[in-house]
Amino acid sequence: MILAPSILAADFSRLGEQINMTENGGAKWLHIDIMDGHFVPNLSFGPGVVKSVRPVTNQFLDVHLMIENTEKYVEPFVSAGANGITFHLESVSDPDGCIELIRSLGAKPAIAINPDTSVESVFKYVGKVDMVLVMSVFPGYGGQKYISCVDEKIKALREYAGNDFNIQVDGGINESNIKSVHGLGANIIVAGTAVFGGDVKANTKRLLSLCGQVSGR
Ligand code: DX5
Ligand code: ZN
User: What pTM, to 2 d.p., does this model score?
Assistant: First the structure.
């Protein structure tokens, strides 16, 4: 299992330091939520934050775009240092074109679906993207409660995609539910509040160990 701490919940006055704590705790990815106030009600960061974060960590920079006009912003985020770009199926009119664009720039494409989008709607992209993100809250804010009816979607996607495919789950993951979400078939798990609330390195290690991972440096 790969843990992807979401910096949305970080203390931004100590961002670099807290990112290092997640990396030293064993988190191989860093999840960066991009919100535009249109596709979702909230605002977060732009490519400038990705550019500042890039030199402070070796983690895979996992950029989750929750925006309109997705295609317009892919290049700025990849140039800033993103390794992976996840876009929402609900916000893009030509998903195949967007996947190609992301690949042509050298980044790994992924598709996200909201809790009320059917899992079957991403099946046809499984062979084309590097990952599918199953949202377990409605995107826009950290600290929300996990919506348990997505359990079935994770299971169905794992069954459809087989063992080698990356399935990410994002929203409301904590110490109490991470093991079951992993067991349902998610192999890349995002956590914001559960990582950055309190001792960041200890939280990272604990969440990984709950899924049977020995980690840390
Ligand atoms: C929600 C974001 C999430 C969020 C997760 O729109 O996509 O990545 O930061 O936060 P927690 O883990 O606090 O639910
Ligand atoms: Zn996210």
Answer: 0.98
pLDDT of residue 118 exceeding 50, the answer is: yes
Q: For ligand 1, is residue 144 a contact (CB within 6 Å)?
A: yes
Ligand 1 atom closest to 146 (CA): 14
- Could you list the beta-strand ranges (E) of the chain: 2-5, 29-35, 60-66, 84-88, 108-113, 131-135, 166-170, 188-191
Ordered domains of the chain (ranges, CATH): 2-210 (3.20.20.70)
Q: Is 33 a residue of the active site? A: yes
Is 130 annotated in the active site?
no
Pocket test for ligand 1, best of 6, 7, 35, 36 (most atoms within 8 A of CB): 6
pLDDT digits (tens, 9 = 90+) for 129-154: 999 999 999 999 999 999 999 999 99
Say what the pLDDT of residue 215 is. 61
Look up residue 181 and give its two tokens: 């979400």
pLDDT at residue 216 tops 60: no
